[in-house]
Amino acid sequence: MSVAAILKHKGHDVASVSPGARVPEIVQTLSERRIGAVLVRDAARQLLGIVSERDVVRGLARDGAAVLDMTAAQLMTSNLHTITPASSVADAMQRMTDSRVRHLPVLEHDELVGLISIGDVVLARLDEQALEVDNLKAYVAGNM
User: Fold this and answer.
1) Which residue in 2, 44, 99, 117 is deepest, having the highest Cβ count within 10 Å?
2) What dotted CATH number matches 3-140?
């Protein structure tokens, strides 16, 4: 299965905030949408970074309540790990593991086309395994 298949099922909608968005607004977006990260994009829709729950927690640990006055630009992770729609689920899983990230922006020709999470990747991998088991059962039963 490919990342494109995940996006086909999940959709291409991506939550994003401006670089000037303050942490309370970011946290509200995360909570309302029940998501773990938002992308940071400028007025031209260029991808600048990502702010995850983990970034907020680290900011709280480092700066205490002062983190509430920080902007997305100040808190975001700007060294993004990305993937393409043509990449496999195994590639996405490996990239997330190696990079120790839970979200990967999906870029096609340097344009943002979606965002996948570790939950999306695990679900896709479970679907792949279920299909493999069904195919093996059919093979053993002589139905192939």
Assistant:
1) 117
2) 3.10.580.10
User: In angstroms, rounded to a whole number, what is the distance separating the alpha carbons of residues 86 and 17?
Assistant: 27
> Rounded CA gap, 93 and 43, in Å?
31
Sketch the domain layout of the chain as residue ranges. Answer: 3-140
User: Measured between alpha carbons, how far is residue 65 from residues 21, 22, 42, 53 in Å?
Assistant: 16, 13, 26, 15
Helical residues (DSSP H) of the chain, grouped into ranges: 3-10, 23-33, 53-63, 72-75, 89-99, 118-140
Question: For the whole model, what pTM was predicted?
Answer: 0.85
Q: What is the dihedral of CA 33, 34, 36, 42, to 10 degrees?
A: 0
Helix (H, G, I), strand (E, B) or coil at 18: coil
pLDDT tens-digit series, residues 8-62: 989 999 999 999 999 999 999 999 999 999 999 999 999 999 999 999 999 999 9
